[in-house]
Design brief:
The protein has 2 domains: 70 residues, no CATH class; 66 residues, no CATH class. It is 52% helix and 0% strand. The N and C termini lie far apart (103 Å). 17% of the residues are buried.
Length: 172
Amino acid sequence: MARLAPLVLNLNDGDRLELQQLVNRHNTAQQIVLRAKIILLASEGKNHGEIARALDISLDLARLWRKRWFETRDTKLPIFQRLQDSERIGAPVKFSMEQVIELFALACSKPEDYGRPISHWTPRELADEIIKQGIIESISVRHVGRLLEEAELKPHALSLLVNPPLKIKNLT
């Protein structure tokens, strides 16, 4: 079966100049330089194998960036942005913003309001209470701690703000 030749990549003079400037600039990230070189070589009529050999990269990488260049040609993005990594999807968010806000509201309330015989909330107590209320099905104590830390909430210090220690002045 015959192999298809890669799509011909034609650059206008402005794009070619901008890509060459990215390659020549000393502070351009090496990933961007490599991608710009791939596009420049592709515009010279090189196929994926020739580009891969010239730059000592895989065929897949040469193919990927030629394809990505064609996919972004109509986007009006600056060339530098066209050579950036695409967004990564990552794991889905486990808790909604409303659930996290309810956790924060709970952390800012008094434990005795919820029948807890403690002076201040700990991540373990917060995790237990938020699960007990049915706000979140399950959450680890460590994750509660991380959420509080990111929000810079310190439930153990809130009791001092609400009930500051008495300062007795020296009357003598």
